């Protein structure tokens, strides 16, 4: 019995020694490659399209602002309207031209003011003002879509939360 245990622990020890030896060998190879100036294989660049960014960075935030505003959760809404503003600014940097127009200029003409209005209502904790400004923001999304021949992308206020794991009421 004792002999079996000893044999087992000895074989476990030899496995760990082999592992350590393997790691050391790999480290040696890596430092050799570095010394020879071999660069690691480059990661392919990811270039998101306007549609990718609208779906991932803009649409969920528009939804969340609507849900937080309906709950009068001004703390969260303050955070999320700033996220939306920054998302548009990043889009303008990532995709400088949209259908032949300067994206930053488009963002500035189409959505900056509606975002300012929502932000001001949130800051003032003005529930009615928020409701009006959110309608105007949503309209601005659609106006830009119309001018970009994407009139079939129609945005509206969310009718319910698609986020089962986020509480838009808590944290007020
Ligand atoms: C500066 C103009 C502009 C503004 C403002 C704008 N969009 Fe867009 N949006 C576009 C363009 C252009 C497309 C089409 C992108 C494409 O086809 O690659 C688009 C597409 C979309 C799509 C379709 C993506 C899909 O696969 O279903 C959604 C959703 C969307 N926008 C949401 C919004 C929301 C929400 C707002 C307002 C908060 C908004 N957009 C404001 C220009 C804009």
Low-confidence stretches: 1-10, 19-24
The SS-based structural class is mainly alpha
The percentage helix is: 55-70%
For CATH, the homologous superfamily of the largest domain is named as Oxygen-evolving enhancer protein 3 (PsbQ), four-helix up-down bundle
Average residue-wise pLDDT: 87
For the largest beta-sheet, the strand count, sense and barrel status come to:
2 strands, antiparallel
C-alpha Rg (nearest Å): 27 Å
CATH architecture of the largest domain: Up-down Bundle
Q: What is the top-level CATH class of the largest domain?
A: Mainly Alpha
End-to-end separation: 64 Å
Query: What ligand molecules are bound, each kind once?
Result: heme C
Shape descriptor: globular
CATH topology of the largest domain: Four Helix Bundle (Hemerythrin (Met), subunit A)
Provide a count of the helices: 5
Please tally the β strands and state the result: 2
List keywords for this structure.
172 residues; Four Helix Bundle (Hemerythrin (Met), subunit A); 2 domains; two-stranded antiparallel sheet; 2 strands; 69% helix; binds heme C
Give me a quick take on this structure.
This protein is an all-alpha fold. It is built from five helices and two strands, in the order H-H-H-E-E-H-H. The chain has a two-stranded antiparallel sheet.
